[in-house]
């Protein structure tokens, strides 16, 4: 057998699906065989083509490192550095050197078959390590001769395998002296084998010198940016250095820098070097795709059989194919690669007599078998118990020249105690023993506080949220009591904050505060849905009424044991509205419950990280699975500060249909793109899960209590509190993610006016918070890893084009009507400008009800205009064909929407509501946008009349109404004076007041003494007066002056009124309690610090109103001016299209239909399309945004599918097992113990002293578990002692 006289050159490619290292090689010369030269016509290779081969190989190897270097450098520029891991740098540099030496110098002297068998020898160091371990195990002291002899026999196969693989470093030097890579061959093999550290690092290296490598391999820790950057830089430097040295070692002395520059920058598809670079780019894309697929399969927990992994089976299959199928020099692969200037030789060492085998045939087969075996050992599946916490990982560095090494998935259990390197345990404990030490289950169980904010919801809305809470109560109890292994469990506590729940009621001339009709409706509905009944004493034990510094509280024990706290807020005692309710539960549940508990700082931090707040609205509807998906997402990623779900609007009417499609495309595209490319900008308050430790950040919770001091603060803080809280989280560095599988429903506005007023609040707040984030982009990007400059640019484009929406829609309406009706463009422009201009004038000068009436009628009119737009658009597509830019944009947008609906099969029917969305485009993108911006100074949730009332200004009545009121007032005063009724009424009112004061004083004393108030208030007047005289004999001796008596009576009356609300008709059967002193003090301090009702003078409110009006004028004028200029520019460009246009022809010979202005007939023409540059630029930018959002949607749907597969897998793993397990007995005992403890807590929690927090429950449960484990361990030790004695 002889080697060809000329050098061989190869180019790596992926002929097989697995991307093997040396699957394709090319030749520089034709070889020694004239027959081969005759059968394969070869052109003379130029120096530029040779340079292209070198560049292609270098590009394949260095491109992943270059990307990694750029990414790491950017992160380091932001200050995210780390400690350099030198061992990784050294090993990866050796791997880069070894692969480069083999690729650029050794492989060119071999054919494809020998390259394949040589690549199977890379596990050389792994085999050596296994041999050393076996021999050192046999040499350990204390072993018997028989034991040592047996272990020596076990070590022999490993030693033989090492010697066989080591022969690859010199075997071809022995067979043929013309093989010149005598030194390069062992250097390349040994360096690559050492650098392939994933093959010889395993779990036994934990805690040893190689502990850092162990942690990196199994993803116990991530490679920091500093190490990443240095590794990438060293690998690139080593590869380039070896390539330069190989150019001279291979005899290509004529190559210089100009050849490499020309090959890289000169693009000619007919040239070989350009085709080579394109081929290398395809290989890079294939490698990236294969790595992504491997990650995807690992995420799905779908692992292919070990024996079909590329690392274990691909070399053997490729060698068999080359050896026995592709022996001809003119095979189809050679013919294909000849187009790239490459000459292919699969097996160059074949002889004239095909019956004879080559001298290295058998040793090559052994190499292949050993390499496949070691590859199988590396990628083989490991089986774990469902109780174990498994982490999957991939090699941290991607190797382009040896991609199969980068496709391995490593799995590791965090629960297993692995043996240390070279140390064996003589008496290992059973890993499945139920008594082995486990993590405290208290640390595994999350705490979820469900916090709902209510105001004046209807009975249907209240029923919906109560039904969701009751389902959550059942799921929580089931999970806590079943105690399935490794099942997600959580502690649950419900809180409902009832805003403006009190009203003034006048009885017998006395004014008192009582819960309003909405709370009574809620209480009756709660009793109905829980099925609560009275006990023998006529009381409801699961209902407790408590007076609080902010109003009152109702504590309810739900059927499955969850405590529900209903906080009744009195706006006279505490600030009302949703934001202040959120401040209440943040400081109460996170500040008071966590920070004031007697735990160490570390324990409180752990509790905060494992505590979550589920924020919902008073009309939210969701299933327990929706919460579990959010909780699983939060547990899986510690950097997430909030996770939100998919919100579905419900209700009836056309406006709800519109919102169904609007919500669908907003979640499908916008939220998905934000999740994938950065962070979600808004976590809706109707269904979001917040991490306690994120909210407790001082820059979040404290800033959220900030009151508005500037005009823009009123828009940003109070109009969209959910959006502002999300902005604070993002700026502080916390991620907000979107879980599409977590569904929730909420009632949407059904009326036109209600919808416009809702969006009048949302739109300015959304713009203000987005602009605030963009203006502070440096801080946001520095703190938040997910917010990049590219994401900031994307959000800038979105907000910029949303502000140009009115102009874009206006010009679309104008030209659509021109095309549909054949009218003059100038006339149509005025026909549309006049009604829109009139609406702008109304927004500046009239009340909101007038604006809304006008907008409603104009929306109906423009719905008919949109039909003309539809006809005109269809006509344009037919005339100008689909290849016209505008037609292409419309067709693409419709196709993408339909494709998105197909990707969301459960929501596919929302695409039908797109018809309503299309008809309402002028209403929402023109009139609604203008209404929101011009009414930016309206800071209440109602109409402008409410603003006048809030600022101390009376709403002006009409002159006729003023005259009627004046006449009626004069007549009333005259009649009262004539009849002397006024004096009698005042005297009667004074007597009733005194009588009421006496009654309230008596009731207050009896309440303090524990006597039932209702019975006392129902007694006969004479008995009550007699008892009052007896109890007040001592107080009559020291009477104060009349003024002091009045003040004292007033205070006593107010104090007594605090208990009277508990005696109303539907609350009288509840138990009564009082707050503990610490909690009462907490609420008083919190109210004094942040929640005292804001009292401002009319002058101050007028100043605020003037500031808001000034802000409105600035913003509205700017946006109106920009939109007017844009609309005018587009219209003028269209009028002068013949001069100021871009001539566009999709392809040569393109024809379209055009109206002949002379004949008025449509004729086919080959004239290029005329496109105005401004409109074309807008279309291009909108398409870019749409494609970015579509890509984000695809990636997010892929992520959702992964989660669905994992959920199905978990359901299968948590199936019922028939195996006997002694721990099941313990779990049953634990369940009974918990029930006993829970019953004790319930009794204490519904006593007069208030409720008991969950921490006591955890401590008691831990003690029970400790006693059970101690008893089981004692029994086991006793059995072990008896067996030893026997």
UniProtKB/TrEMBL annotation:
Q: Which residues lie in Basic and acidic residues bias regions?
A: 1016-1030
**Where would I find the Chitin synthase chs-1/2 N-terminal putative transporter domain in this sequence?**
37-375
Q: How does it sit in the membrane?
A: Multi-pass membrane protein
EC numbers listed for it are 2.4.1.16
A single GO CC term for this protein reads:
plasma membrane
Xref: Gene3D superfamilies: Spore Coat Polysaccharide Biosynthesis Protein SpsA, Chain A (3.90.550.10)
InterPro entries per UniProt: Chitin_synth (IPR004835), Chs-1/2_IV_N (IPR055120), Nucleotide-diphossugar_trans (IPR029044)
Q: Which GO terms describe its biological process?
A: chitin biosynthetic process
Q: Where is this region: Disordered?
A: 1016-1051
Q: Which GO terms describe its molecular function?
A: chitin synthase activity
Compartmental location: Cell membrane
Identify the domain of life: Eukaryota
> Which positions are tagged coiled coil?
983-1010
- What transmembrane ranges does the database entry give? 84-104, 110-128, 149-173, 179-197, 230-252, 272-290, 302-322, 359-376, 789-816, 828-845, 857-877, 883-903, 915-934, 1115-1133, 1174-1195
What is this enzyme's catalytic activity, as reactions?
[(1->4)-N-acetyl-beta-D-glucosaminyl](n) + UDP-N-acetyl-alpha-D-glucosamine = [(1->4)-N-acetyl-beta-D-glucosaminyl](n+1) + UDP + H(+)
Question: Major place of localization?
Answer: membrane
Kindly state which keywords UniProt assigns to this record, in alphabetical order: Cell membrane, Coiled coil, Glycoprotein, Glycosyltransferase, Membrane, Transferase, Transmembrane, Transmembrane helix
Q: Which family does it belong to?
A: Belongs to the chitin synthase family. Class IV subfamily.
Q: What is this protein called?
A: chitin synthase
């Amino acid at each position: 057998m002889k080697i060809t006289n000329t050098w061989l050159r190869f180019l790596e490619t992926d002929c097989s699906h697995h991307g093997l290292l040396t699957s394709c090689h090319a030749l520089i010369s034709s070889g020694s065989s004239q027959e081969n030269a005759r059968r394969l016509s070869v052109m003379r290779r130029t120096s530029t083509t040779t340079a292209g081969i070198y560049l292609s190989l270098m590009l394949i190897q260095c491109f992943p490192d270059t990307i990694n270097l750029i990414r790491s450098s950017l992160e380091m520029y932001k200050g995210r550095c780390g400690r350099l891991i030198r061992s990784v740098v050294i090993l990866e540099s050796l791997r880069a050197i070894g692969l480069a030496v083999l690729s650029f110098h050794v492989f060119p002297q071999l054919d494809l078959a020998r390259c394949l068998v040589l690549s199977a020898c890379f596990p050389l160091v792994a085999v050596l390590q296994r041999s050393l371990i076996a021999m050192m195990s046999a040499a350990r002291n204390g072993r018997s001769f028989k034991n040592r002899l047996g272990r020596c026999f076990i070590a022999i196969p490993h030693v033989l395998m090492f010697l066989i693989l080591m022969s690859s470093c010199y075997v071809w030097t022995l067979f043929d002296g013309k093989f010149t890579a005598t030194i390069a061959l062992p250097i390349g093999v040994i360096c690559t084998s050492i650098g392939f550290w994933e093959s010889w690092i395993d779990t036994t290296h934990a805690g040893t010198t190689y502990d850092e490598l162990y942690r990196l391999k199994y993803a116990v820790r991530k490679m920091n940016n500093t190490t990443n950057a240095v590794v990438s830089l060293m690998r690139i430097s080593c590869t380039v250095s070896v390539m330069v040295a190989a150019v001279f070692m291979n005899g290509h002395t004529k190559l210089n820098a100009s050849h490499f520059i020309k090959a890289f920058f000169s693009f000619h598809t007919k040239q070989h070097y350009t085709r080579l670079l394109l081929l290398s780019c395809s290989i890079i894309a294939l490698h990236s795709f294969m790595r992504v697929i491997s990650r995807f399969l690992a995420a799905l927990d779908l692992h292919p059989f070990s024996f079909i992994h590329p690392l274990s089976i691909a070399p053997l299959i490729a060698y068999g194919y080359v050896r026995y199928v592709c022996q001809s020099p003119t095979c189809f692969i050679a013919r294909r690669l000849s187009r790239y200037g490459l000459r292919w030789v699969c097996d160059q060492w074949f002889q004239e007599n095909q019956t004879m085998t080559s001298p290295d045939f058998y040793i090559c087969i052994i190499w292949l078998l050993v390499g496949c075996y070691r590859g199988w050992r590396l990628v083989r599946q490991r089986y774990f118990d469902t109780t174990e916490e498994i982490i999957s990982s991939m090699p941290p560095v991607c190797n382009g020249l040896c991609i199969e090494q980068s496709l391995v998935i490593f799995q590791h259990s965090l629960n297993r105690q692995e043996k240390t390197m070279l140390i064996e345990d003589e008496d290992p404990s059973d890993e499945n023993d139920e008594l082995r030490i486990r993590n405290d289950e208290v640390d595994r169980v999350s705490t979820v506080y469900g916090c709902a904010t209510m105001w004046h919801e209807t009975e249907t809305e209240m029923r919906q949220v109560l039904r969701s809470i009751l389902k959550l109560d059942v799921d929580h109890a089931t999970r806590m009591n079943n105690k399935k292994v490794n099942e997600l469990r959580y502690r649950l506590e419900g809180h409902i904050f009832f805003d403006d729940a009190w009203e003034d009621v006048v009885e017998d001339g006395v004014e008192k505060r009582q819960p309003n009709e909405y709370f009574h409706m809620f209480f009756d509905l709660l009793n109905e849905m829980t099925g609560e009944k009275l006990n023998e004493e006529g009381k409801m034990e699961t209902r407790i009424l408590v007076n609080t510094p902010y109003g009152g509280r109702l504590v309810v024990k739900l059927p499955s044991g969850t405590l529900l706290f209903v906080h009744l807020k009195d706006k006279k005692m505490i600030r009302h509205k949703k934001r202040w309710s959120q401040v209440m539960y943040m400081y109460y549940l996170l500040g008071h419950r966590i920070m004031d508990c007697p735990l160490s700082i570390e324990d409180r931090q752990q509790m905060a990280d494992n505590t979550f707040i589920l924020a919902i609205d008073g009309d939210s509807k969701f299933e327990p699975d929706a919460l579990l998906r959010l909780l699983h997402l939060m547990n899986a990623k510690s950097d997430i500060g909030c996770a939100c779900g998919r919100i579905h609007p419900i209700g009836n009417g056309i406006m709800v249909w519109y919102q169904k499609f609007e919500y669908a495309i907003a979640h499908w595209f916008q939220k998905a793109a934000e999740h994938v490319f950065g962070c979600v900008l808004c976590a809706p308050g109707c269904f979001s899960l917040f991490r306690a430790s994120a909210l407790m950040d001082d820059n979040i919770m404290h800033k959220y209590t900030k009151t508005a001091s500037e005009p823009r603060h009123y828009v940003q803080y109070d109009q969209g509190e959910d959006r502002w809280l999300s902005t604070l989280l993002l700026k502080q560095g916390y991620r907000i993610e979107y879980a599409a599988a977590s569904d929730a429903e909420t009632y949407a506005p059904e009326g036109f006016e209600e919808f416009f007023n809702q969006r009048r609040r949302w739109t300015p707040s959304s713009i203000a918070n987005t602009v605030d984030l963009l203006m502070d982009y440096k801080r946001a990007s520095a703190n938040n890893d997910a917010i990049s400059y590219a994401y900031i640019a994307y959000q800038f484009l979105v907000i910029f084009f949303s502000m140009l929406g009115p102009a874009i829609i206006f010009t679309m309406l104008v030209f659509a009507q021109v095309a549909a009706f054949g009218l003059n463009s100038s006339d149509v422009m005025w026909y549309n400008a006049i009604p829109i201009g009139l609406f702008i004038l109304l927004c500046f000068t009239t009340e909101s009800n007038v604006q809304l009436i006008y907008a409603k009628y104009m929306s109906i009119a423009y719905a008919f205009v949109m039909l003309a737009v539809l006809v005109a658009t269809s006509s344009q597509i037919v005339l100008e064909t689909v290849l016209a830019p505008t037609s292409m944009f419309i067709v693409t947008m419709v196709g993408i929407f339909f494709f998105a609906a197909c990707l969301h099969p459960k929501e596919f029917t929302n695409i039908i509501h797109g018809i309503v969305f299309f008809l309402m485009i002028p209403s929402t993108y023109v009139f609604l946008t203008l209404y929101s911006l011009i009414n930016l100074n309206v800071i209440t949730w109602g109409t402008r009349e409410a603003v006048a009332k809030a600022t101390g200004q009376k709403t002006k009545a009409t002159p006729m109404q003023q005259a009627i009121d004046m006449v009626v007032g004069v007549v009333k005063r005259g009649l009262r004076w004539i009849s002397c009724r006024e004096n009698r009424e005042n005297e009667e009112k004074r007597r009733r007041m005194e009588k009421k004061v006496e009654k309230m004083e008596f009731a207050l004393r009896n309440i303090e003494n524990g006597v039932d108030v209702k019975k006392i208030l129902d007694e006969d007047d004479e008995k009550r007066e007699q008892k009052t005289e007896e109890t007040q004999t001592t107080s009559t001796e020291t009477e104060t002056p009349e003024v002091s008596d009045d003040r004292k009576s007033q205070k006593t009356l107010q104090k007594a009124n605090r208990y009277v609300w508990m005696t109303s008709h539907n609350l009288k059967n509840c138990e009564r309690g009082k707050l503990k002193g610490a909690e009462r003090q907490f609420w008083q301090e919190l109210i004094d610090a942040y929640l005292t009702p804001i009292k401002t003078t009319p002058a101050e409110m007028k100043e605020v109103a003037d500031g808001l009006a000034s802000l409105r004028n600035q913003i509205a004028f700017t946006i109106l001016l920009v939109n007017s200029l844009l609309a005018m520019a587009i219209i003028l460009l269209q009028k002068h299209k013949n001069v100021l246009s871009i001539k566009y022809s999709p392809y040569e010979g393109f024809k379209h239909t055009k109206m002949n202005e002379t004949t008025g007939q449509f004729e086919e023409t080959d004239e290029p399309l005329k496109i105005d540059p401004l409109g074309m630029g807008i279309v291009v930018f909108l398409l870019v945004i749409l494609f970015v959002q579509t890509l984000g949607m695809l990636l997010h749907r892929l992520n959702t599918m992964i989660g669905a597969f994992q959920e199905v897998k978990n359901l299968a793993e948590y199936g019922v097992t028939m195996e006997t397990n002694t721990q099941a007995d313990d779990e049953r005992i634990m369940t009974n113990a918990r029930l006993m403890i829970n019953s004790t807590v319930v009794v204490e929690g519904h006593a007069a002293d208030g409720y008991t927090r969950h921490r006591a429950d955890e401590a008691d449960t831990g003690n029970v578990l400790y006693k059970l484990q101690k008893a089981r361990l004692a029994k086991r030790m006793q059995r072990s002692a008896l067996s030893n004695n026997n």
